[in-house]
User: What shape does this take?
Amino acid sequence: MKKKVFRIITAPVSMNIILKGQLSFMNQFFDVVGVTKKDDKHYSEVSKREGVRMIPIDFTRMISPYKDLKVLIELYFILKREKPEIVHTQTPKAGLIGLLAAKIAGIKIRVHTVGGIPWMESKGIKRILLKMIEKFTYSLAHRVYPNSKGLESFILSEAICKPQKLKVLGNGGSNGINTDYFIRDLDQRILLREKYNIDDETTVLGFVGRIAKEKGINEWLDVFEEMKLKYKLKILLIGLFEQTNGILGNDVRSKIESDPDILFLGRFDDVRPYYSMMDIFVFPSYREGFPNAVLEACSMELPIIATDINGCNEIIEDEVNGLLIEPKSRSSLKNALIKLIESHELRGNMAKEGRLKVVNLFKREILFNAIKDEYESFLVNKVNRDI
Assistant: This one.
């Protein structure tokens, strides 16, 4: 009989996107059960595509003591009834509540994936409180998996987890990349650029992700205003406006929605056609874990401009498959843009190198097998749980 593994994540959209393909792969070897909030779209999509049983739990992203306690109690009884051998959590809220419920319920193997730390950019009391919560969460796990080496170093520097608990799986990342899926499509490029009246002389600067202050959107728009006086440029934004942390000012939102040189198209389940539209992928984020969008863009053969922060600088090798810039630096971003806009040859070389690196290091099979091996090591007691 296959051993039961609970994968717990706060939001169904995260489970649907971040763990795409992973649950079905693991379900070949284990009895995988997905636990997340139920919605009208992503919850059922995960169940149908991945072929796993799902259990709904009413997580909230924000701190809500009454609702969080209710979820903790409900999850405790679910775990006591289901008796999984392994509970694997991801995202901060699911980690805190899921691991605490699992410990109280006596689950023997508890592991947690860290895909980013929101309080990296926080200050004062908020930072102290969130850091304490994070430290408590890690204390409940037998193993903590930062999804990048830079994130592991940050956790160690903040002294919030025992070093022997930490482990980066594979070469980093939360799900790897399906390199057979993320392939550049020239036909889609031509079709969509014609649809949006973008000629061959126009350089399209693209971004995929949350449209938020911490993604460097403010600095990028300032640089764009100056540069489009000299170059034929358009910005292509794929994603939704952030509604909780790092919300953009109304003036910036209005600019994005009204500027004819900015294509704000919203969110799509299949982003490949829009990557194909782009000439340069721009990712001036302030903080990351291990950004999937950068991996996807590399797989789609795009040259990258990204900030020199953990995660990004593990994917991008400066001057090889992209350019690394200083966070929050308009001048650094401007210089990088000029360099790539003015050299088609450099862009082409970086695009090829980016695809090659993803295929060699970040294919999803590499990470999937690393997670599988980790589960099996715990189950046959090859890993010390008493840490």
